[in-house]
Amino acid sequence: MILVWLVFAVMTLATAVLLALPLFYTRKVKNEAAFALAVYRDQMVELGRDAEAGLIAPDQARLAQIEIERRVLALTDNPQWQPGRAPSHGLLIVAAVVLPLLGFGLYLLIGAPDLPAQPFVAAHAQPAIASPELQALEAGVAAKPTDAKAWVALAAGYDAEGRAQDAATAYGKAVALGAQDAATLAAYGQAQLIANRGEMNDAAAATFHRALAVDPTNPTARFFLALGKAQAGDIEAALTDWMALEKDTPKDAPWRATLEAHIAKAAERLGKPAPTGTSDAASNPAPGPSSEDMAAAQSMTPEQQQAFINQMVTGLAEKLKSNPDDLDGWVRLARSYQVLQRSDDARDAWAKAASLAPARLDVQLDYADSIIAGRSDLDRYLPPEFVEAVGRVRTLDPRNPLGLYYGGLVARVAGNNAEARKLWSEVLDRLPPDAPQRAELKKELDSLLP
């Protein structure tokens, strides 16, 4: 650290010297007439143009010309070379020594060198336009700023749109206003965790512990506290806690598949057989058209098949309007839009699915992929919703290869090339030797070299 400050001090001194050098150079005489003569010549030219264009009367032009000529002649009455002004040694001392020292002392007094860097993209990114529903929630909070329920609803709205930092702030307001139930505290902790790019920190852990103090059975708090242990390297403790949570989780719980996937991966990392009862249902795609639908489509012309597919997709979208909490329906709709190459519609459908299943790793990965699909500027800019989605992915499974790669994209755009190299190197180590992605990933790694 001392070496860094010494380097900064030398750079500051060198800059001050370069700025002060012109003050040491002063001519003993200076010619002011040459500059004045050039000005008068320009005035004569401009006067001639105005007279030709009719912008000034001929008599007025003649008077102005006489006045300029008089001033030109007057230059010969004065000496062309006059003594130059001697340098002020006091000014030199102030510019070269006193000002840098004052600036350094002022920074020590009010500066904040420990603040994290804020990349240009993040600092100047345009805020996302709020949906009408979110605007209504914000208006509700503005009308009742002390209503904890209004803050909880707003926080949930922010969370549904992938704005984790805003959600954490809103949940914090709700908790401060008295919303101390376990569900709100657990949601607050999850928002804090996602806002921290999926890494457990003291604030999120403390919030989860507060949720368990209210309800020791709260599944969200139990799951993420175990995940925090896994991130800290205590896989054995995380596996124990997840298996205990699995025993208390109903068979039809929407998060059970994710929980079982984490149990299986933790067991694999410890070299243990996967516990019975776990499954990889979280990675299984939702069912598509029925076999009868597929058989009927075989006898159609390409135009009829396209119309048939569009009709099915439209019908599914209409059904979801009356049943918006149908997660499998949103997944099927999103994949159908992808087949039809309707990328915007697919992204919206994945966003809805992701809001319904924040703990489904496969859904979060598909949502993240849909956000950046077709973009060619990933080395310069990443949409904020993509960064939030990657935070959720990294929370659910810090070792997922695709999550590691996406984390490298986020780190690169943020200017943290060291973190990007670390994450992408881990992905490269896990790829098979004959994997076609290795060559492209090596190019990405080479581009990060200084």
Structure description:
The chain is mainly α and 450 residues long. It folds into 3 domains: 109 residues, no CATH class; 138 residues, Serine Threonine Protein Phosphatase 5, Tetratricopeptide repeat; 156 residues, Alpha Horseshoe (Serine Threonine Protein Phosphatase 5, Tetratricopeptide repeat). The protein is built from 22 helices and 2 strands. A two-stranded antiparallel sheet has the order 1-2. Helix 6 packs antiparallel against helix 7. About 4% of the residues have low confidence.
Task: Supply database-style keywords.
single chain; 450 residues; mainly alpha; Serine Threonine Protein Phosphatase 5, Tetratricopeptide repeat; two-stranded antiparallel sheet; 22 helices; elongated
Question: What is the element layout, followed by pairings?
Answer:
Blueprint: H1 2-24, E1 29-31, H2 33-52, H3 58-74, E2 81-83, H4 89-110, H5 120-124, H6 132-143, H7 148-160, H8 164-176, H9 182-195, H10 202-214, H11 219-231, H12 235-247, H13 256-269, H14 291-298, H15 302-322, H16 327-339, H17 343-356, H18 361-372, H19 384-396, H20 401-413, H21 417-430, H22 437-447
Antiparallel strand pairs: 1-2
